[in-house]
């Protein structure tokens, strides 16, 4: 028997007819199984990707919700800060207003003190003799000026009416006080502790009545004779209850018997009433001074001042003077 070549395939043997369809079915079944397997794997991957996507979406929604919450909180904080800012601006505005008012008040206080200082200087200049003899002295404390008169400077012993000397004193003081509507003038009467005797006792049973009567007479003189505005004047009596010295000695009792004129800033309502009256009085004084100067010039030149002509009335007659 000849040797067989191992490298030579045996001749193709025809297969059975039933074997071919089975092979095709097996191949198809394998392909189907393989496709199903790959489809299963693909579906698994798809499901996994879907789960991951769902998780990512949920996380994203959570982050979005958190960011929305933070945004709302920031907006709330911003609104609160805006409200606080507005409140601070209001407080700042109020503080600035208070600062301006304080500056205005301080300036007004300085002006009041300066005005009182000017009044004090003028009174001292006019009352040099009385001040030298101790009959008058002045005290200024801030926006208050006190002019103290010994009773003998204004009244005769045992009298309540202003004496002739007192009238001259009050006239000179009133010349300084005229034209000062910013000042309220309070006249206060004071006495010593000695009981009232003699003819005064029937009309003035206590020092209350005596102090009020003397203060009232001073106020009446200033208003009626010296022509100071009555709205500017106040009369009060303190009796024996505000002494400035001991009542045990004659010198102390003499100091306690006094009239005080206290100058303080007038209330705004009083100022508004007084300023027009003072302005009119000042204008009249200025007109009178001009007329006096004109008369003086006419006298010096040797000519007579011309009388003011009056317009005739409707009947053709000159108007009465």
Descriptive key words:
single chain; 321 residues; alpha+beta; 60s Ribosomal Protein L30, Chain: A; 5 strands; 61% helix; rod-shaped; disordered C terminus
Question: How is the topology of this model organized?
Answer:
Elements: H1 19-126, H2 128-132, E1 136-141, E2 144-150, H3 151-154, H4 164-177, E3 183-190, H5 200-203, H6 207-225, E4 233-239, H7 250-256, E5 258-265, H8 268-301
Parallel strand pairs: 3-4
Antiparallel strand pairs: 1-2, 2-5, 3-5
Helix pairs in contact: 1-4, 4-6
Proportion of beta-strand residues: 5-15%
Q: In CATH, what is the class of the domain at 129-282?
A: Alpha Beta
Query: Helical proportion?
Result: 55-70%
Multimeric state of these chains? Answer: single chain
Q: Strand tally, please?
A: 5
Spatial separation of the terminal alpha carbons: 189 Å
**CATH superfamily caption of the domain at 129-282:** OmpA-like domain
Q: What's the pLDDT, averaged over the residues?
A: 83
By CATH, the architecture of the domain at 129-282 is named: 2-Layer Sandwich
Main beta-sheet strand count, sense and barrel state: 5 strands, mixed
CATH fold-level topology of the domain at 129-282: 60s Ribosomal Protein L30, Chain: A
Task: Give the C-alpha Rg.
Answer: 57 Å
- Low-confidence sequence ranges: 307-321
Overall structural class, as computed from helix and strand content, comes to: alpha+beta
- Gross morphology is rod-shaped
Can you describe this structure?
The chain has helices at 19-126, 128-132, 151-154, 164-177, 200-203, 207-225, 250-256, 268-301; strands at residues 136-141, 144-150, 183-190, 233-239, 258-265. The protein has 321 residues and is α+β, with helices and mostly antiparallel strands. It has a domain at 129-282: 2-Layer Sandwich (60s Ribosomal Protein L30, Chain: A). Strands 1-2-5-3-4 form a 5-stranded mixed sheet. Helix 1 packs antiparallel against helix 4 (164-177) and helix 4 crosses helix 6 (207-225). The protein is rod-shaped, with a radius of gyration of 57 Å. Mean pLDDT is 83; it is low at 307-321.
